[in-house]
Amino acid sequence: MPVTVSAVVPVYNEEGACVQVAREIEAEFSKLFGVGGYEILMVDDASRDDTHARLVAAKADILALRVLRHEKNVGKSGAMRSGFFAAKGDIVVTLDGDGQNPAADAARMAKILSEAAPDIGMVAGQRRNRQDTASKKWASRWANSIRKRLLNDKADDTGCGLKALRREVFLRLPYFDQMHRYLPSLVTREGFEILFEPVDDRLRTTGQSKYTNIGRLAVALSDLPGVMWLNRRLRRPGYVSES
After folding, report:
1. Cys staple from 105: which of 71, 196, 199, 214, with CB 3.0 to 4.6 Å?
2. How confident is the model over 193-217, as pLDDT tens digits?
3. Nearest to residue 96, comparing CAs of 184, 203, 174?
4. Average pLDDT of the residues of the chain
5. 133-to-96, 159, 208, 213 alpha-carbon distances in Å
6. Residue 148, pLDDT score
7. Are 221 and 146 in contact (CB under 8 A)?
8. Three-state DSSP class for 191?
9. Nearest-10 Cα torsion for 53, 18, 41, 153
10. 120-127 and 163-166 as β-strands: parallel, antiparallel, unpaired?
11. Contact assessment for residue 140 and residue 106, using Cβ atoms and an 8 Å cutoff
12. Mean pLDDT: which of 136-140, 178-182, 207-211, 235-239 is highest?
């Protein structure tokens, strides 16, 4: 059976969660896509702990698992990009490597996109009952409200790690560090529609967040003027015919 769906999971110092995340993806994706119909790409972004060794060992009994490793740490967007380039599936769904994103939601979103009209380029998760501190939720709401107002991307929660995209759509997007925070706007810029799906959120049980609240706000808003510039400079040719 050819691979139709790829699950891409960027991981950095997630030795306590990474293998369990892969096992959960295997359990949920096999229900909807069957053995051989999906793959799991764990992208180790130059972790300094035992993440890579544990993932490589897990390949012995998680047959769909592939492990990519960066020589240098480049961040979440860079790890996602490596995963999309390596993916064999036409549909790619992303999850965070800390275990907070339920794999059942990821599989459901991939299924929705696989059955959607061709003009639907992305299914974006919107977290309900978010399991974060009050200060973190406040910082996220503030940044999201500014981004949504200025970009008009209709997204209430771009920080959610659960996103399903058509691989060919992602490969058309301009790449820059932290681009994952602007995927709704970038996908819309290419002329595609987006579906938003409610997803669950779980408490992190191992490891620690890679950002402080101030750091999260800084990276979330620093590229906003650049994305606004990209949107202003776009010129669409309309339908392209060949004679």
Report:
1. 199
2. 999 999 998 877 675 655 555 665 6
3. 203
4. 88
5. 18, 15, 13, 10
6. 65
7. yes
8. coil
9. -140
10. antiparallel
11. no
12. 178-182
Structure tokens at 68: 């990519």
- Global pTM reads 0.85
- Distance between CA atoms of 142 and 8, rounded to whole angstroms? 28
Average pLDDT score over residue span 24-30: 98
Considering only residues 37 and 208, tell me which one the structure prediction assigns the higher pLDDT.
37
End-to-end CA separation in angstroms for the chain: 36
Q: Which residue has the tokens 């991981």?
A: 11
Q: How many C-beta atoms lie closer than 10 Å to residue 167's C-beta?
A: 17
State the helix-helix crossing angle for 134-151 and 213-222, rounded to 10 degrees. Answer: 10
- In this structure, what DSSP letter does residue 175 have? P
Q: Taking a C-beta distance cutoff of 8 angstroms, is the pair 70, 78 a contact?
A: yes
Tell whether the model's pLDDT for residue 22 goes beyond 60: yes
Helix (H, G, I), strand (E, B), or coil: what is residue 229?
helix
**pLDDT beyond 80 at 135:** no
Dig out the tokens for 197 from the structure.
């799906």
Q: If you write DSSP's letter for every residue of 74-109 in order, what string do you get?
A: --HHHHHHHHHHH--SSEEEE--TTS-S-HHHHHHH
* 3-state SS assignment for residue 116: coil
**70-102 pLDDT tens trace:** 999 999 999 999 999 999 999 999 999 999 999
Token pair 């579906």 is at which residue? 195
Do the bridges between strand 163-166 and strand 91-94 make them parallel or antiparallel, or are there none, so unpaired?
antiparallel
